[in-house]
Amino acid sequence: MRKACVIGWPIAHSRSPLIHNYWLKKYGIDAAYEKKAVKPENVAQFIVNLATSEFVGCNVTIPHKEKVFQAVAVADKIASRMGAVNTVYLKDGAVCGTNTDGEGFIASLHHSYPAFDLRTKTAIIIGAGGAAKAIIGALLDEGAARIGIINRTRERTLGLQEQFGSRVFEINATMMSDALKNCNLLVNTTSQGMEGQPQLAVDIRHLKQDALVADIIYVPMETAFLEKAKQLEHPVLGGLGMLLHQAVRGFELWFGLKPEVTTELYELVAADVQKAHEQ
Ligand code: NAP
Hints:
Elements: E1 2-8, H1 16-26, E2 31-37, H2 43-48, E3 55-60, H3 65-71, E4 74-75, H4 77-82, E5 87-91, E6 94-98, H5 101-112, E7 122-126, H6 130-141, E8 146-150, H7 154-164, E9 168-170, H8 176-181, E10 185-188, E11 212-215, H9 224-231, E12 236-237, H10 240-246, H11 248-255, H12 263-278
Parallel strand pairs: 1-2, 1-3, 4-6, 7-8, 7-10, 8-9, 10-11, 11-12
Antiparallel strand pairs: 3-5, 5-6
Bound molecules: NADP nicotinamide-adenine-dinucleotide phosphate.
NADP nicotinamide-adenine-dinucleotide phosphate (NAP) binds at residues 101, 104, 127-132, 151-153, 156, 189-192, 194, 198, 216-218, 239, 242-243, 246.
């Protein structure tokens, strides 16, 4: 029987098994997907040995994504741009790595707002970490005209600006109000607003009237930032869609069928998130 897994340390929190086992059952595929706790010191060996193991591939979660990038035999263009791998698969016996976070965000956006055309649009990204890098790269690939970055640590913003070039710019405190007035898409990629973390303190009262506001956090499913955006009558997008859509390509690579992100799957994972949030 084919098997895939998600590796992390710790791994108990991962919702990947819920997602992939839903699809395996839905499509009647005789395969399994499980959690595998792999210690940081064993990650490289696990990846190098994957081709001769019981697994056809794996997802990778915190804190292993950078180590796995180093360990795979072949990293594709997007994984190389990220310096991080979240999906590992075998091709002609070689262990290959990619990163699907950026495409997960874009697919979620298209799923919820099919008419939202990124070309000619200006986006503002709050945060400059791994998720920000994935989303900025994907937005640029989709034709976004300009992307401003707001981040606590300036060096990280400048690093992204250097990596992605002239369409990416830094937003400092004095520019903030004007930048928000001209923004079509505002995305929080920081962990602020996540359960147990401080709230995000970006004032959106002057944000362009019809700007779409997204938060990639999914615990809670609706952050205070999104609640505020809703009150101000902005269209909003939560983080759960990104989580579900980033899983699609791994499933297709391992099991040969592109799965659908259905309302039923969304509700299944949402209920699990809600349950954990209430505990
Ligand atoms: P990361 O690389 O560690 O980056 C964290 C970002 O948050 C940095 O920009 C950091 O700013 C900022 N930050 C953290 N605490 C802050 C604070 N107290 N004040 C101001 N800024 C703060 O993490 P990541 O991998 O990008 O993940 C970020 C978030 O996205 C997490 O909540 C994660 O769960 C979520 N995520 C969701 C999905 C999904 O599928 N929905 C996928 C990936 C990630 P500095 O640069 O100043 O440190």
